[in-house]
Amino acid sequence: MISLQKLFGKNDIFYDLLEASAAEALHSVQALGKLITQPASAQSLDELILTRRKDKKITEQINEELCRTFVTELEREDIEALSNVLYKIPKTVEKIAERVMITGGRLQDVDFSRHLSMMEEATTTVLTIVKELRKRLHLERVKDLNAKLQHIEGEADKLMMELLKDLYAGQRDAIQTIMLKDLYELMEKVYDRCRDAGNVVSLVVLKYS
Question: Which residues form a coiled coil (predicted)?
């Protein structure tokens, strides 16, 4: 006989897993910050690879739980959408770290502190807004957090234009320009993923408000 608990699932399992995934997204950005500030000879992808693998396992567990659970508090499509966008954050951050590694120290004089600060703020906000899913009725709180993510993404766009303007001024050699443009575009994707996560949560909470 199939137990009712298995049929309907634990009420908190998806909240736990989604929050864990959001936490790994934040952790990946923090790990990237450590890597970038280290000398090229000391840089390692180990922590970022571990974070991305942990998040992949969380994503796989979410998919498995969706297969096992007949009824979920949140709609299955919403769980899948949020899980997928959260997984893309550490995956993109790892790509940034890979690019940094293969530059061979040619960008050691570049200051990425503004990007790192904004990415950490964005992923911290994502973790906070995902935690709000348990409450669901706090629509105004979620709106405020989502507006913050939209603002960060907008500021990131302005920063991107500012940095591209500097690149196009021709102060760096061609190889460095290509490297930086590639990195800036990948960093912009991190903000976009965070914005997407906020939009998913906002739509979910709106359904239940």
Answer: 135-162
Q: How confident is the model over 94-112, as pLDDT tens digits?
A: 999 999 999 988 998 899 9
How many C-beta neighbours within 10 Å does residue 120 have? 15
The Cβ of residue 159 has, within 10 Å, a number of other Cβ atoms equal to 17
Q: Which of 160, 180, 48 is closest to 103 using CA atoms?
A: 180
Q: Which two tokens stand for residue 104?
A: 């061979």
Count of residues for the chain? 209
Angle, nearest 10°, between helix axes 76-102 and 174-208? 160
Nearest to 31 by CA among 13, 17, 4, 51: 51
pTM score, two decimals? 0.90
Average pLDDT over residues 53-57: 96
Mean pLDDT, all residues of the chain:
91
CATH number of this structure's domain 4-208, picked from the four choices 3.40.50.1010, 3.40.718.10, 1.20.58.220, 3.40.50.300: 1.20.58.220
Is residue 184 a contact partner of residue 163, using CB atoms and an 8 Å limit?
yes
